[in-house]
Amino acid sequence: MRTGVWICTALLAADLVCAGGQSPDNVQANPGRGELESIRASLEQKLLRDQANKRARIQLVEVLIRLARWADAQQQVQIMSRQSPQDAEPVFLSALIAFRRGDPHRASDLASRCILLGDVRPEVYKILALSEYLLGQTEQFENRVRAILQRNPSDAEAQFFLARYLYEMGRFAEALSAFQKVLQIEPEHYKAHYYAGLIYASAGDKQRAREEYLASIKIVEGRKIRYAWPFADLGRELNDAGESDRAITWLTRGIQNDPSCPKTYYEYARARLEKGAGSQVKEALAEAIRLDAGYANAYYLLARYYRKSGETQLADEALVKFRELKAHPIPSPYGLRR
């Protein structure tokens, strides 16, 4: 599979809502591992009291998937299957586990089996569509998502998948229209705001881009969601406009929001370098590279830093690494855009 297609697929896959969009009660949209472990223990206690509590078991499977405890998740699915042999839900959850583990063949087969069992929920078709996309069947992906929307035009999740696909395929006018439809259905869809901002920025409408980034950030901070991308791109826009101090402020907030996002460190270093080759530049770039070893532009910026610092040999070494990565790109381990 081509690198660009792989990245596009990883980005789309990352947005699939676990277990048909259900979330355990009182869970944030993006809880930390410690919170997930606490929820897991609570659900296990609930099931000890009532083994037939299907909702609690589905929620436990979702939490185990988020924790990447695949064997434990599958074990819970097997219990469900024994309790309800004719139920399609265990098949759907098995498809979800296979998908999240990176086995699109099995996920596609299981999703197809769900449909044969009469489970025609949009979530089933979403797994099928994304699995087929992973298998290189891109036209089929778009057709399936559009079919979901024909049945339910108000499905914000499906509309977002379509918008993301169109964006990654470079069909920006169609993508913007689709993101706007998402926001009509779900005004607080922070990812739709963010991607709309990216499209406005690429079209040169910097003010609209900033407005969308800020709208995304307001939702993210208000709901305590870890999602640093709008901070990173807002910071980049501000820095490019000569507002490096404001850029650094927003990028610092982005790093605090999600310390695992490489781009915020990169943009922070880029903004800092405008003010001089201080140690904070090197530290931020080291963190960006630690998080994403294939971050070519981070090596290029590191070479610039070393040049400004008078460390010629280190600058040359960083530049060699930059050229190697440009010639032989490494997909991001997070499926992230760079």
Instruction: Give the oligomeric state of the chains in this entry, treating copies of one chain as homo and distinct chains as hetero.
Output: single chain
Percent of residues in helical segments?
A: over 70%
- State the low-pLDDT regions, or none: 1-7, 16-28
Q: Give the overall average pLDDT.
A: 88
Proportion of β residues?
under 5%
CATH superfamily of the largest domain: Tetratricopeptide repeat domain
Q: What's the topology here?
A:
Blueprint: H1 3-14, H2 33-49, H3 54-66, H4 70-83, H5 89-100, H6 104-116, H7 122-134, H8 138-151, H9 156-168, H10 172-185, H11 190-202, H12 206-222, H13 229-240, H14 244-257, H15 262-273, H16 279-291, H17 296-309, H18 312-327
Helix pairs in contact: 2-3, 3-4, 4-5, 5-6, 6-7, 7-8, 8-9, 9-10, 10-11, 11-12, 11-13, 12-13, 13-14, 13-15, 14-15, 15-16, 15-17, 16-17, 17-18
Concise summary:
By secondary structure, the chain is an all-alpha fold. It is built from 18 helices and no strands.
